[in-house]
Amino acid sequence: MIKAAVVGGSGFIGGELARLLSRHPKISLEAITSRQLAGQKVADTHPFLRGYIDLTFSESITGHGLDVVFLATPHGASMKLVPEIASSGAKVIDLSGDYRLKDPQVYKEWYGHEHTDLENLGRAVYGLNELYWDEIAEADFVSNPGCYPTCSTLGLAPLFANGLVEGGVFIDAKSGTSGAGAELTKATHHPMCGASVNPYKVGRHRHSPEIAQTLTLLQGHPAEVVFTPHLIPVVRGMLCTMYLKLNDDLTKQDLLEMYAEFFRRKRFVRMTEVPWMQAVIGSNHCEIGLDVVGNRNVVVMSAIDNLVKGGAGQAVQNCNAVFGWPEETGLDFPGLGV
Amino acid sequence: MIKAAVVGGSGFIGGELARLLSRHPKISLEAITSRQLAGQKVADTHPFLRGYIDLTFSESITGHGLDVVFLATPHGASMKLVPEIASSGAKVIDLSGDYRLKDPQVYKEWYGHEHTDLENLGRAVYGLNELYWDEIAEADFVSNPGCYPTCSTLGLAPLFANGLVEGGVFIDAKSGTSGAGAELTKATHHPMCGASVNPYKVGRHRHSPEIAQTLTLLQGHPAEVVFTPHLIPVVRGMLCTMYLKLNDDLTKQDLLEMYAEFFRRKRFVRMTEVPWMQAVIGSNHCEIGLDVVGNRNVVVMSAIDNLVKGGAGQAVQNCNAVFGWPEETGLDFPGLGV
Amino acid sequence: MIKAAVVGGSGFIGGELARLLSRHPKISLEAITSRQLAGQKVADTHPFLRGYIDLTFSESITGHGLDVVFLATPHGASMKLVPEIASSGAKVIDLSGDYRLKDPQVYKEWYGHEHTDLENLGRAVYGLNELYWDEIAEADFVSNPGCYPTCSTLGLAPLFANGLVEGGVFIDAKSGTSGAGAELTKATHHPMCGASVNPYKVGRHRHSPEIAQTLTLLQGHPAEVVFTPHLIPVVRGMLCTMYLKLNDDLTKQDLLEMYAEFFRRKRFVRMTEVPWMQAVIGSNHCEIGLDVVGNRNVVVMSAIDNLVKGGAGQAVQNCNAVFGWPEETGLDFPGLGV
Amino acid sequence: MIKAAVVGGSGFIGGELARLLSRHPKISLEAITSRQLAGQKVADTHPFLRGYIDLTFSESITGHGLDVVFLATPHGASMKLVPEIASSGAKVIDLSGDYRLKDPQVYKEWYGHEHTDLENLGRAVYGLNELYWDEIAEADFVSNPGCYPTCSTLGLAPLFANGLVEGGVFIDAKSGTSGAGAELTKATHHPMCGASVNPYKVGRHRHSPEIAQTLTLLQGHPAEVVFTPHLIPVVRGMLCTMYLKLNDDLTKQDLLEMYAEFFRRKRFVRMTEVPWMQAVIGSNHCEIGLDVVGNRNVVVMSAIDNLVKGGAGQAVQNCNAVFGWPEETGLDFPGLGV
Questions:
Q1: Crossing angle of helices D104-111/D207-219, nearest 10°?
Q2: Nearest C-alpha in B relative to D190
Q3: Are residues A226 and A103 in the same domain?
Q4: Total count of domains within chain B
Q5: Per residue in D169-227, pLDDT tens?
Q6: What is the nearest CA distance from B84 to chain D, expressed in angstroms?
């Protein structure tokens, strides 16, 4: 058993990490930190963990001889913590936005402050697991992707990697409210969102440049991304419906074969006629479907559990890569369906 | 047209009052106050009112020559405002909890502070419209009931008024989240309540003594009330399922006839086999159904729109009584159904 | 008072028509038909109408001396009924899909059978009220648009009418389940859709050619439409998020001014920063917002109540046009908000 | 590995059984039957099982040398199948209602037909696992309880077993719609239930006598049960709020100690201040809270996942008892929380 800790365990992603790590056959969860809740039982904040996690929140992670540290801290906080943790010899998997954007100018533009840890920014491997397993397997510092970038990029990667996209892509994303986090906001106040689908941050969400960065790398020239997130009245789950033009005459069958090849042997990506969000809830799976409509228009649909494949689950999957275990270790269970 | 104002118009009940009053054929809404939002457009806070309410929030209601003032202020605030408003000659309809409990000791026990306006407390008429129309018609100060007391007392009144209840009553109440108000709370954070039914304040909700007070008056001796509210994942709507023992052998048919008689000519109470919450949403109606189960056990079900009949709608209905108009004036529309 | 009837009143649109017509100050609802439910109380099927509609379902509408007939019948059924009703002298407003597509070949392609009433197809006026008021005012036969075409076309019309669109448009539509009708289906079985957002009929929905037809007319050359409907876990409400490229450098401010001009004096269209679906629920309003993102990309968002503006409400609005009344007659109330 | 089969695998409980058994470390799932779907992939009906269950539905279970058979068949069907399966030597766990009511007269009264397998009815052990582990461990035929009886009886058992209840109990139950099964019904049509809480079968649900039977056994004299189920707009989850009078003066603390003792070493029952349904979703846990209100009134709240602890999970737990494994084998994971 390797020793792990979660830094910043009071939020939803922190709780989900604890939930998954508590069942991981090769990881022992030694500590969960929270400055505000230090000294309190973790299971008081995350009552679903009673009987599974007996830890109290601690202030720091020192003294545990950790092999891996998961950072579930807010952006801005992560980059203050990473240098010291990384120098301790522990592997680091950061779930914040701090190390996702490779260009510090772009980071500053979208996050509103300077990046203060360029050294680790340079060596961070972007943990979109299905695309970068080999690099992640060699890494000791992984930057875990955002939920929207995970869902949308998986759905789009085969098309961009094969250079098939004419112009840009329009991403219409629908997320359950758990994606917005534990902080109370008007947008997630039930009376404001419980009977509605609410767009927000149209064209201004920080996940836009993250998606564009990966698609650009995949196709080898700048990818134009128009990204519109919406909150939907479910707690968990995410669906991205994506629209683009092909630069060639390809049939649905052509594309399905290309996708099958692209995701060959990838345990967590399932091609399907139309994704059913409920089929992936509680699991690390991603369901992808697509259609060709009219003249070279492609609609791609991709569904994940935003807290699992879109967060804690992919972090565990990346940890599995880092330590050389099969990708499904500790994640080998289906979604709920109904 | 008489002149009306809403004091404390930033919350959900304030917005709903404005919505209803904007369509009332005999009332002109002259002012809506909010200390915090003074100077801002009412329709910026309540965007569904664009095109219907062109007012800006004002700081005070003086200078309008008002005929009636609706107080949608929090408890504690109302009793500081009522003396002056009442002395101005305007009729007052208070939607807070300040004047509902007749005994100032009971008020203090449940609201945590002394009552400071005993004079108006003494003369306030409890505005459970179907029960007290005649008194309300004579009043110039009405204390509008809480949402839970409206829903549950309407369902129980015929049984208690006819002295048929053996022992007390158990009230299992389910409310949409709009009943909890506009203030952000963990209980109404969508991720915490959006896929759940959550009991809260078991036996400790301030509406318990309010319900007991009316039932006690109806049956002429102390009524024991056990009241458990739950938040359900809908924005609007309330259902109370209520359980009690009869002290006599009566059939369902006997009870249905008694209810029909009790609510004769009451426009907004509908007897039905089983209430359908959606049938009353957006309307001032109350649907009531009941069954006799086994040995003298009665199950009564009562459904309302918590913001209309459970708040702003009943306030308008009470205003109609005060001014001698038909009860349905400005409220004569059906619920949404689907 | 003019005399009206609803043919095919057992479904959700039929119930909603009855709900609205029961409150219309200039219309007397004389009959509601349903072959299957003939002889039964309308309010038994639509319990929210108890106290408002005392009719029983009838088999036919003959003998009432009707001024206007609303057809809420399925496609295929309407075109069998229209010739006789139209010849009776009554105005006709058809809410089915039978008379929306002007080209009988296109109709056959999408609806799967020949059109059998070419005469009335030729003279039917397409009732997208905000666009064609003048034509509707002259008509005695109106074909009421589908819910998705209403919501999306209103959001797109100013751009297409001004010839500003480069290429086609991607329409990502989210509809409450009431839009799918009263018939039981697996897609609307709560356990399959209640915690999900489910795309369906991707690129194959019958509303696609209807949207394309109007946009084509507006811009004067063929409009390419890619349309993906989704079911969302709300009962009422619809949001369309739409993506396209401008063929010119225009700012958000430019577009907002164009929209304001286009919808000048249109009571039911409200421009807003971001539409809030709940703000229009229960009302005939449409909220539209837009943004320009990156290089000439436009995101337009449009929200309606699918049963009101997307169905029965617009039918009443069209009836108002036909009879020369103000458009808001019988529809002059705001949405629910919370 | 022992060999298991699921008979009647096309429904929600059948799918959930397959989900759980696919991960069970000591069970190999050999066959899943469905007469209607024979020859089709199980994962086509239950798409969340793709990658986990590669079986096709079969017509029968013969020829597998099975050690245990789970019957997820409808009542009426089970009692036709059990005699043959039981005589094959396989252990049987029946999830239908056929063997729950010990008195064939009561069975006939509530299920509407004669019981045709009195022999197995006589020897069936009622699988309310936390109460009857020892008997189940000795059994080769287990009748798995209904979802409502599991949830409510667990919450009430300590009070009834200690003879503390004066009179009967009122059970107000709220269930997610998955409990109603895969069959399409008006009650589970999303537009009818998606924005509502709907009571049904008030006092007439078949789980009433099942609950009364166990409570009667526990207290040693007839228990009066008034049971009102409600459908709530969530897919999974169940909460029972229960009301009764104590026959003695006991404090909340007294009761909590009694419950702690009663459920000592029971892995899946968690005492909590107020149950949070979301905390048990996806898991086999039951959360119980209680309060004493006023004069000897007790409110007990109990929450489960209706498909897991209320169905397939408890069946697996019972299987674990039958084969002498720890109760949490294959079930040792927490609920989702958010």
A1: 150
A2: B338
A3: no
A4: 2
A5: 999 999 999 999 999 999 999 999 999 999 999 999 999 999 999 999 999 999 999 99
A6: 38
